[in-house]
Design a protein that fits this description.
Layout: H1 5-13, H2 22-30, H3 45-55, H4 67-79, H5 93-98
């Protein structure tokens, strides 16, 4: 993929510029680093994990304690054409696995 974090920020999310240290976090993760990002609600944490997941090969895994937030983020990414799924206690994993191989145990 020839996209850059800046191109994805604009084309997918409609923003012209990153806020605060978002780009620093994104670049660190793209380069293979780990990150624990603490920002206030609405501070832009989602972009810090969504953009690296889109730019790197493989699967991005996000761990969140909030089911409502998971559903909101998955829905938003699916509307953008990204293959995203949630896995939590409210999902029948057998039914989910019948609908696709997203959670197939290897």
């Amino acid at each position: 993929m020839n996209d850059t974090p800046e191109k994805l920020l604009h084309s997918l999310f409609g923003y012209e510029h990153f806020r605060g240290h978002q780009l620093d976090v994104i670049q660190h993760v793209i380069d293979g680093g780990d990150a624990l990002v603490l920002m206030p609600t609405g501070g832009g944490k989602s972009i810090c994990y969504q953009i690296p997941a889109l730019l790197r090969e493989g699967v991005g895994v996000v761990i969140s304690p909030l089911i409502a937030l998971m559903q909101d983020q998955v829905s938003s990414m699916q509307q953008l054409g990204v293959n995203a799924q949630a896995l939590h206690s409210g999902i029948d994993w057998q039914l989910q696995n019948q609908n696709g191989d997203m959670f197939k145990i290897l």
